[in-house]
Design goal:
Mean pLDDT: 90
Helix content: 25-40%
Strand content: 15-25%
Largest sheet: 4 strands, parallel
Number of helices: 4
Distance between the termini: 36 Å
Structural class: alpha/beta
Shape: globular
Strand order of the largest sheet: 3-4-5-6
Number of strands: 6
Low-confidence stretches: none
């Protein structure tokens, strides 16, 4: 049986095992925290992540805005709150091991605002950001601003 040799990922020696940030609340703080606790890289989805109240109860997303713009602003607020929540859960579950990443879909509406809000609200809890569906230059700038690592998902030779 072969053993896995650790490598440096997001500034720390970790096992080369990376959880993919499967969309819309599939990969969350629980799963990514468990991956990190085992010494790998846990990645939670930043696409419409779930939020919980102070007692740990799920907060359903209800939209009360009368206009499309008002409802869009509510969606952004839910996404930021959910991303911060998932980062906190992952950090607690990881117990200081591994790395925690957030996966974003840059083509999602308001992705830059959401990522900025999550990284601001979860400073020190997220070590890296992964992103598929292109390699937007603004994402690299934003990650550099918050001093987190950026890992584009390259799925074509053209990229």
């Amino acid at each position: 049986m072969k053993t896995l040799n650790p490598i440096i990922i997001s500034g720390k020696e970790t096992l080369p095992l990376i959880e993919g940030g499967k969309g819309i609340a599939i990969s969350n703080g629980e799963s990514s925290g468990a991956w990190a606790a085992a010494g790998g890289v846990g990645t939670f989805s930043g696409v419409n992540p779930d939020s919980y109240d102070a007692d740990g109860n799920f907060i359903p997303q209800h939209y009360y805005g009368r206009t499309r713009r008002e409802r869009h602003e509510e969606l952004i607020a839910y996404a930021i709150r959910g991303g911060i929540t998932q980062a906190q859960v992952a950090h607690e579950r990881a117990g200081g091991n591994g790395r925690i990443h957030m996966n974003v879909l840059w083509e999602m509406a308001a992705a830059e605002r959401i990522l900025n809000g999550v990284l601001e609200g979860a400073k020190g809890l997220i070590h890296g950001v992964t992103c598929g569906a292109g390699m937007p230059y603004r994402l690299a700038e934003l990650c550099a601003e918050f001093r987190v690592f950026y890992y584009p998902i390259v799925s074509s030779g053209r990229a």
